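$ ./design --mode recover --in tokens.txt
reading tokens...
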């Protein structure tokens, strides 16, 4: 089902998204070699609960953690554990917060120390593709316009788009309609209407688009084990220009002037 939200509901999602953005920033402060992914998960859960929220992912269809933490070739749904971050890794943090009955959802991929130039470019361009897609999330458009824009942007650099995993509606439920693929054709798919709230989340591979699921039933990685990047915003469909409800501001206040910084800030990308 696709649910249209009132301005009041959208404001509640935005309040949830503020807690989410600050939780991301608390995690960002701890990203360095030697830190375990379980420690990062604990940091996020404590912050979210201390600020009146509920981690959207924990217990969702049996998922055991508050964060999906995906390192290097892991695309999404990595389970936090004993793995210690290493210099040169990349780490995707996907997090959701439920507050006042409404969910928000966002993801960000960080370098751990110095990383290879081609991987840094992958992160920067994946992030830029997110904003390119958001530029098409306006009333009167189609879901396919978003996917086409993301796909066209990243494929010019030789990257590939994961097909099996898509963005989605967000609201009282973590996942609602419509599905929002990161590929597609202009003018196709669900029509975008003011009041729709969707998560746009490019998942872009340095190598081939093929993915596999690990035996834990959750972890999705690239088949060729080449790196994958993931960035996500929750946005409201408006006339003329989408309203970005989640924020990278707090992340980038932490990562400014450090090797964690990826690309430019959201103000200049838009």
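writing sequence...
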């Amino acid at each position: 089902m696709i649910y249209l939200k009132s301005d009041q509901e959208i404001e509640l999602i935005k309040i949830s998204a503020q807690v989410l953005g600050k939780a991301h920033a608390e995690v960002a402060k701890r990203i360095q070699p030697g830190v375990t992914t379980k420690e990062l998960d604990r940091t996020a859960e404590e912050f979210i609960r201390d600020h009146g929220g509920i981690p959207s992912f924990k217990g969702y269809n049996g998922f055991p953690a508050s964060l999906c933490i995906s390192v290097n070739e892991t695309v999404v749904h990595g389970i936090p554990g004993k793995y210690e971050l290493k210099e040169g890794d990349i780490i995707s943090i996907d997090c959701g917060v439920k507050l006042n009955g409404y969910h928000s959802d966002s993801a960000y991929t960080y370098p751990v120390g110095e990383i290879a130039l081609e991987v840094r470019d992958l992160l920067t361009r994946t992030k830029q593709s997110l904003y390119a897609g958001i530029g098409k999330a306006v009333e009167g458009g189609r879901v396919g316009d978003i996917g086409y824009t993301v796909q066209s942007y990243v494929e010019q650099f030789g990257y590939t788009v994961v097909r099996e995993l898509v963005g989605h509606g967000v609201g009282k439920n973590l996942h609602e309609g419509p599905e929002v693929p990161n590929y597609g054709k202009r003018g196709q798919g669900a029509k975008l209407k003011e009041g729709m709230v969707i998560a746009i989340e490019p998942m872009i591979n340095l190598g081939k688009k093929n993915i596999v699921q690990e035996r834990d039933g959750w972890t999705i990685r690239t088949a060729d084990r080449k790196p994958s990047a993931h960035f996500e915003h929750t946005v409201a469909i408006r006339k003329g220009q989408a309203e970005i409800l989640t924020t990278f501001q707090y992340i980038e206040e932490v990562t400014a002037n450090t090797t964690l910084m990826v690309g430019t800030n959201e103000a200049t990308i838009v």
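exit 0
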